[in-house]
Specification:
The complex is a heterodimer of chains A (about 180) and B (about 325). Chain A has about 180 residues and is an alpha+beta fold. Chain A has six helices and five strands, in the order ββαβββααααα. Chain B has a domain of about 110 residues: 2-Layer Sandwich (Enolase-like, domain 1), CATH 3.30.390. The structure holds flavin-adenine dinucleotide, iron/sulfur cluster (SF4) and FE2/S2 (inorganic) cluster (2 copies).
Chain lengths: ~180, ~325
């Protein structure tokens, strides 16, 4: 069986895995990193979202062996109970969850999404594709950019407010960096 | 289950050799479709040759157009400044597809070669000629809302799911392919095939042929192009139908027009009959509707899918009228 080396939440990890293992299963079942959740296992819900080499990605659709040497950051790696990441704090402040199952994925997705917006990436609802145009993160923009994360509890209103808060705190900058 | 061997290719030539010589080998891109198919048992390769790390991850401006590497991620392609300014239909199509996470992972080649989302194809407990040739087609008598309305066969009525491919079809893209015999170029329009008697074959590629790039040529029409998609919810859903349209007007006469449809057929459907009817005449909503209706005369629909005819007509009219208003 191939040996997989990863950096997970800042810690170097090593594990033997079957080549068919998804990154999500490698994290949860083999490395006991349980922040990313298995909602659908088919790319349809976003609860398994992690930052993979800095970009938000679905760990259930990533083949673990293909990410040898990768840097993986999960919601646990973003912050702690004592020192939450600004995005985690904002979810607390605005009730951006109910059962909490989708939350680790939501949080990682927000961090990645704000970074994409800061880099000027357009979205489906961006009216002007002009590369020079600044991205105005309106509510519609936030909803569209977060559409890959479902919440069965329907905490969307709180999640939207949380994103607004982080975006405002960061002076409309990235909000991604601590 | 046999052990699956994973190989990270170090060159395109090495990758081609590895897959061509081994019928059980398959390429791996971002893995967003293939990983799922491994889990579902839809595909059972014994060797995966990872081509996502090959140095095919750049978008090169060739002066006359763009050469898009096969491993460029969908999100990077959508955000590329030249794609946004000179080929907006491509940005729009990519941004209308999947989610932010999936676009970060998916590659250009993987997106083109993603397989149908036909619900029966994805359910190995049901008959499906595409998954298991000769087993029958569950969709013909089954749930028909997503079925093809053009170019389907008695063997398969599935549609191709890619948004990006529809835009590339309208933009007259060329696909650069490397095989054991060397390199060849295929017009994107000829990459995917209609199902006929062999729905198990999505494309005209031979086993082992590797997509290395997609080439686009600049044109007035490409600069004034767009993509519109109708779906069951506002985001994160495959197309019911979609249109990629490109338009160049000379005064109020149509100098150049390109129309491609998604959700209509087993491949991106280039609406050449409609284009011919519109070229050299004025552009208004009724003319577009008439041209689309002519293209759709060959449509074969059932009670679940006949809405697609009206929807394709309407969405095409809306896209072209908006483009004409933007240019004049
Ligand atoms: C929930 C969900 C929603 C989605 N919504 C949409 C949508 O709305 N619109 C849309 O267009 N797509 C959508 N997708 C599909 C997504 O776009 C595809 O999964 C993705 O583009 C595939 O790219 P990949 O690089 O991950 O391919 P992979 O999964 O790695 O590969 C796909 C196929 O391509 C082959 N391949 C890969 N690279 C090469 C190469 N260089 N040469 C030859 N063969 C190669 C592989 O062998 C495999 O057969 C959605 C997916 C999910 C899970
Ligand atoms: S439409 Fe095609 S893919 Fe769907 S069940 Fe029939 S043969 Fe299979
Ligand atoms: S578990 Fe990965 S998207 Fe649902
Ligand atoms: S908080 Fe329960 S699923 Fe989102």
């Amino acid at each position: 069986m191939p040996t997989l080396r990863l950096t997970v939440d800042g810690v170097a990890r090593k594990v033997e895995i079957d080549s068919r293992t998804s990154l999500l299963d490698a994290l949860r079942e083999r490395l006991e990193v349980t922040a990313p959740k298995k909602g659908c296992d088919h790319g349809q819900c976003g609860s398994c979202t992690v930052l993979l080499d800095g970009r938000r990605s679905l760990s259930c659709l990533a083949l673990a062996v293909a990410h040898e040497g990768a840097d993986v950051v999960t919601a646990s790696g973003l912050g702690s109970m004592d020192e939450p990441h600004p995005v985690q704090q904002a979810f607390l402040d605005h009730d951006g969850y109910q059962c909490g199952y989708c939350t680790p994925g939501q949080v990682c997705s927000v961090v990645g999404m704000l970074e994409e917006a800061a880099q000027g990436h357009p979205s489906h609802v961006t009216s002007d594709l002009d590369p020079e145009a600044l991205i105005d993160l309106s509510n519609d923009e936030i909803r569209e950019r977060m559409s890959g994360n479902l919440c069965r509890c329907g905490a969307y209103a709180g999640i939207l407010d949380a994103v607004r808060q982080v975006h405002a705190e960061a002076g409309n900058g990235t909000g991604g960096a601590r | 289950m046999k052990e699956l061997t994973y190989v990270r290719a170090t060159s395109a030539a090495e990758a081609v050799e590895a897959v061509t010589d081994d019928p059980r080998a398959q390429y791996l891109g971002g893995g967003t479709n293939l990983t799922d198919h491994l889990k579902l048992g839809i595909t059972t390769p014994e060797v995966l040759v990872d081509v996502s790390r090959l140095p095919l991850d750049t978008v090169e401006d060739t002066g006359t157009g763009l050469r898009i590497g096969a491993a460029v991620r969908n999100s990077d392609l959508a955000a590329h400044p030249v794609v946004r300014s000179d080929f907006p239909a491509l940005s729009r199509a990519l941004l209308a597809g999947a989610s932010g996470q999936i676009r970060n992972q998916a590659t250009t080649a993987g997106n083109l070669l993603q397989r149908t989302r036909c619900v029966y194809f994805q359910d190995p407990t049901t008959p499906c000629n595409k998954r298991e040739p000769g087993s029958g087609c569950s969709a013909i008598e089954g749930y028909g809302r997503y079925n093809a309305v053009l170019g389907a066969s008695e063997a398969c009525v599935a549609v191709h799911p890619s948004d990006m491919a529809v835009a590339m079809s309208a933009l007259d893209a060329q696909v650069v392919v490397l095989g054991a015999e060397g390199e060849r170029r295929i017009p994107l329009e000829d990459l995917h095939r209609l199902p006929g008697h062999h729905p198990e074959r999505d494309t005209t590629l031979a086993h082992g042929e590797l997509i290395t790039a997609v080439e686009l040529s600049r044109s007035g029409a490409a600069r004034t192009s767009t993509y519109e998609k109708a779906r069951d919810r506002a985001s994160y859903a495959f197309a019911l139908v979609s249109v990629a349209a490109a338009l160049e007007l000379d005064g109020d006469r149509v100098a150049d027009v390109r129309i491609a449809w998604g959700g209509a057929a087993h491949k991106p459907w280039r609406a050449r009959t409609a284009e011919d009817l519109l070229r050299d005449g004025p552009l208004d909503e009724q003319r577009v509707r008439d041209a689309a209706a002519e293209e759709l005369r060959a449509a074969a629909t059932g009670p679940d899918s006949d809405y697609k005819v009206a929807m394709l007509t309407g969405i095409t009219a809306r896209a072209l009228v908006r483009l004409s208003e933007a240019t004049s």
